[in-house]
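Design a sequence for this backbone.
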C-alpha cells in the first residue's frame, strides 16, 4: 500500500495552503482529532489521518489505515469517511452541498455544509470502523 503514515509535519503541510483552504483544513482537523481522540498524522504526502486500524479481508489482503482523514485537494476538500455512506442517507440529506465517491466526501468549502451534521457523520463512521475492527482501531 502506498498510503502509509510518515513523520512529516502536519502543521507544515497545512501551512502551505492558501488561507481559505488552511482554515477549512484546520477546522476539519480539530473535529477529527476530537472525534477519534488521536493526533493528526501525515499519511503519504497529502493526506492527514487520525487513528489507525488494521484490516483483513477474506481474500487474505490486509493492511493499516486511518479511522478518519482528509486531504485538501485543488478542486475540493476530500474527507475520508472510511465506513462509506450506505448507512448515512438521513445525515447526507441534511449536510449541504457535497459530492461523494465510495468513501470520499468532496466539499468545496466548509461554509457549504452543516458542521454539526459533518461532525455526526465523522463520529458515526469512526464508531462503525471501531465496531468492525474492535481489536484494531
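Sequence:
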Amino acid at each position: 500500500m502506498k498510503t502509509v503514515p510518515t513523520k512529516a509535519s502536519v502543521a507544515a503541510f497545512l501551512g502551505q495552503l492558501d488561507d481559505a483552504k488552511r482554515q477549512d483544513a484546520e477546522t476539519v482537523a480539530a473535529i477529527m482529532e476530537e472525534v477519534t481522540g488521536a493526533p493528526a498524522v501525515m499519511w503519504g504526502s497529502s493526506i492527514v489521518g487520525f487513528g489507525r486500524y488494521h484490516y483483513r479481508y477474506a481474500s487474505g489482503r490486509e493492511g493499516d489505515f486511518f479511522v478518519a482523514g482528509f486531504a485538501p485537494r485543488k478542486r475540493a476538500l476530500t474527507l475520508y469517511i472510511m465506513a462509506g455512506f450506505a448507512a448515512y442517507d438521513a445525515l447526507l440529506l441534511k449536510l449541504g452541498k457535497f459530492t461523494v465517491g465510495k468513501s470520499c466526501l468532496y466539499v468545496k468549502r466548509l461554509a457549504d455544509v452543516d458542521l454539526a451534521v459533518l461532525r455526526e457523520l465523522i463520529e458515526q463512521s469512526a464508531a462503525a470502523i471501531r465496531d468492525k475492527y474492535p481489536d484494531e482501531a
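The longest strand covers residues 68-72.
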